[in-house]
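Supplementary Note 3. Input sequence used for the single-chain structure prediction.
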Amino acid sequence: MRKYETILIANADLRDDEQTALIARYSGIVTGQKGILIKGDCWGKRKLAYAIKKQTRGIYVLLEYAGEGAVVNELERNLKIDDKILKFMTILKEDGIDPVALEKELAELKQRKADESKVTPPSRDEAPQPENDQPEKDAEIAETLPEDAATEAKEEN
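The predicted structure, written as discrete structure tokens, is reproduced below.
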């Protein structure tokens, strides 16, 4: 199994629900071909370096997945016939991926994100207030002074 990354540029006129549907559609193609979707991320609307199909802006979408060559072929076949897609590019990131280890890693990552979302930062009222510990510091300093230094000072006087 290999790890791939496909970046596609969609037409900038897509609404938010259409963008979500687009990511869901291509994610479904990956999982339908027995691939493992690692990440599907929309980077938002950006200015293009040059005009593509008379468009100067586009919506960038990143799909990171693992699978065999058939996954890439089917995904690219669908991207070529979709009028909403201006351009796409697929790169091979890694070869020889263990699917069991990858699924285990994804499950751990998902669990970690769920745990982090449960932890909420304390509100301002609940935050611990700094205490005035100056008397404690004075007592510690007095304890650390050697007794000989105190007696020598008395003898000199």
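The chain has a mean pLDDT of 84. DSSP finds five helices and four strands in the chain.
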